[in-house]
Amino acid sequence: MFKQLYGIIGEHIRSGIHPETHIILPDGGIVKAKDVSTHILAYDFSYTSTTPVTTRKIMVLASKIVTIRTLHSEIKVSQNHRLLALSNNTLKVLKAKQIRVGDLLAVPFKIKVKNEKYVSFPLAYTIQTSYSDFKFNGGLSETVCESRVKNKLKSILRLILRRKVKFRSIEENDSNIAYPIRELYPVNILNEDLAQTIAYLKFSRSIVDGVMRILCRSKNVAKEYAKNLKKFIKVRYKIYRHRNSRLWAIEFSKHSSSILKHVVKYVNTVFNVISRSPASVIAAFISGLYDATGKVDNGVIEITVDSIDTAFKLQLLMLRLGVYPYITRCRETGTVKLRIRGIINTSNFLSTVGRYVYSEINVKPKRDIDDIVPLTGNVKNLLEAETEIAYINGYYVVPREKLQKVIQSKYLKYYNLTSVRDSLTEALYLLSFRWDPVIAVRVEEYNGPLYDFYVPLYHNYIAGPFVVYSSHTTLLSP
Question: Which of 220, 255, 267, 405 has its CA 20 to 30 A from that of 57?
Fold first, then answer.
């Protein structure tokens, strides 16, 4: 009873987001709100660039929660949590309880992070080598190779350490499985080839009688992925035409299947590493996913994933590439898909992910909501003499590329005029975001914790794909 009473009081005092909401860190990492520690990625008052900020997490209990569903995504927040929105042709910061169907929520056009560097990734078994009282941990990514050099390796170690070398068995789960110990070589960096191969291995594999099989669309795709896999792990495999004559299969030996199953387990944490990697690694990872489950349907690129949580993470990853996919879930089958629509999204997908895919992508995109920008009244007045303006679903809109040209032509010429400068700044804000239409708003019983973050004054952060405002600001610098 006390918890429920505190929740009712708390939701009127503080704002908060659902603990499972994904937050972006300054290095590109994606974590849930409940797991944020000391830093997040936020916008300053200019809205045009993200910056790292130091934060402190706050928890509040709430009896109710507002679920806001848009065309592309959704977010769950307290009734008093504020979001950047376009409502009635006016740029506003609205509380969740004020948002109505038809309002447009701000989503970054492209998320940029400060640090982009290759990250170490644990690829295969950890092999421990024991030298009496001295132990050496095989480290990040050591795999099994040719047995003919085993004796040479042991001799070198004996020579260095002057004592007998004894190799332990490899541990998988809770049981010891004895594999022959052979030459070891490290693969410490998650590069484009490895990211692409892991994604493909995870989403296209099947296991029959302990043997792993990967189904491929063509012989060329099968050869390329088999070649990539051999760069990192020495495995035995065969390539053959599957009984479905349109597909080819890569089948691994039982020993190789055991190693690969261990590698696949790392995919549960692979997003932590992928998200902190350069955009090229993200593109390669998504290309492996497309090769495994992707297709083109009526001008739309579709990628099938295993869960809604994976879909939300991939949506944020794709924003690093300038792509904002729709997330759809079939009520009957539970199938979750990412759908890339529109000219800008498709073009950015082909120029980044398309560089790495082995399958052909033949798509003719149609103009979509991300290809146009809704206007406020001031910006509409500024553009009336410059370009043709359309009226769609209660908003005046122009193509994104035309708005960008007008801003570039007018900004330096009229910036000294205060009235024009304010309208141009507002136009720049509109251009910096995608505007996602709200299609449903539900208030639900919750009785649980919500989280918000202290941020520097005039800053706002990204929760899920949306730009949200904290009720807790500090005068401290970022």
Answer: 267
